[in-house]
Write a structure and sequence with these properties.
Belongs to the short-chain dehydrogenases/reductases (SDR) family. The protein is α/β, with parallel strands linked by helices. Helices cover 56% and strands 12% of the residues. The protein has a 7-stranded parallel β-sheet, sandwiched between helices. The structure holds NADP nicotinamide-adenine-dinucleotide phosphate.
């Protein structure tokens, strides 16, 4: 057990499934009190039952039904969470989803909803707890973005934009909160085997799927490995967190050799197109 989390008060958005639930379970095992939120109540109930099974019997575990894109709702929930936990040490803004498709094929409402949930969801939540952290003179805010914020590929324009927006917000907020002894951190999850990824794959363009399968830079991670990496990274001094050699390579290449990295992803796209053509020819024979 890592004593850094024992007795800590944590709120996680989107804690009923996937990476958020993985983080909630890892923190509960470390002795933290955890409240999670999501929209589906039945999933929240199941997740809290799991937290109680692995967590400290003296810790507090609970849930709130919440849509993070609703600012008023988030503000009211924040007050309840602070009251229930008696303050807050760690806020994890994790909620989010991906919708993939060629830019011209996505309705305007898709672009707006992605921003509402992925970007404004994080903004609403962090602002709703900000004054509490300032009053305390302590606390940590963790934002989950995506490795697709390093760069975007075919079909991911709308999603990646919502994840890149988080980066700019987190960087600015980090400096503002520095004066109040509140840490702001930013994690870039890699492709992770979650219910969200399964839904995302349903309407992913065939060429995007093919490109991901053949990519030298893409690997599917388990929820546990990503959640554990996040829990290990939070107490360290680094603002940016990622997991796995594939994320490191993506970050390194796109930061230091952006033109070369773009050429690499373009060649992966062309390769995917050629493989798809071959497969389609074989099927039509
Ligand atoms: N999985 C990946 O490959 C991957 C890669 C990079 C980044 N990420 C990011 O990591 C985060 C977690 O992804 P995941 O794959 O674990 O997703 P997931 O399996 O779909 O779980 C998402 C969680 O967020 C909740 N949620 C979704 N919309 C919400 C809303 N409007 N208000 C409140 N809660 C909401 C969901 O519950 P309800 O549906 O009941 O609300 C669920 O608890 C997301 O921000 C995602 O963009 C994921």
């Amino acid at each position: 057990m890592n004593n850094k989390y024992k007795g800590k008060k944590v709120f996680i958005t989107g804690g009923s499934a996937g990476i958020g639930k993985g983080i909630a379970l890892a923190l509960a095992k470390e002795g933290a009190s955890v409240i999670i939120c999501a929209r589906n109540q039945a999933n929240l109930e199941k997740a809290v039952a799991e937290l109680k099974q692995v967590g400290n019997p003296e810790a507090v575990f609970g849930y709130v039904v919440l849509d993070v894109s609703d600012k008023k709702q988030v503000e009211s929930v924040a007050k309840d969470v602070i009251k229930t936990l008696g303050g807050l040490d760690l806020l994890i803004c994790n909620s989010g989803y991906a919708q993939v498709g060629e830019a011209a094929n996505l309705d305007d409402s898709v672009y707006r909803k992605l921003m509402d949930v992925n970007y404004f969801g994080h903004v609403n939540t962090s602002l709703a707890f900000q004054n509490q952290f300032i009053r305390q003179g302590s606390g940590e805010i963790v934002f989950l973005s995506s490795t697709l914020a390093f760069f975007s590929i075919y079909g991911y324009g709308a999603y990646a934009a919502s994840k890149q927006a988080i980066v700019g917000f987190a960087q600015g907020l980090r400096q503002e909160m520095m004066f109040h002894n509140v840490k702001v951190k930013l994690f870039f999850p890699p492709t992770t085997d979650t219910p969200g990824l399964a839904r995302e794959n349903e309407d992913k363009p065939a060429i995007t799927k093919e490109m991901e399968m053949g990519s030298a830079l893409n690997k599917v991670h388990s929820v546990e490995s990503v959640a554990n990496a996040i829990v290990r990274w939070i107490p360290n001094r680094k603002f940016i967190g990622y997991t796995g050699w594939d994320s490191w390579l993506q970050y390194f290449l796109f930061r230091h050799f952006p033109e070369w990295a773009i050429r690499l992803t373009d060649s992966e796209l062309r390769g995917a197109e050629a493989r798809l053509k071959k497969k389609n020819k074989a099927v039509s024979k």
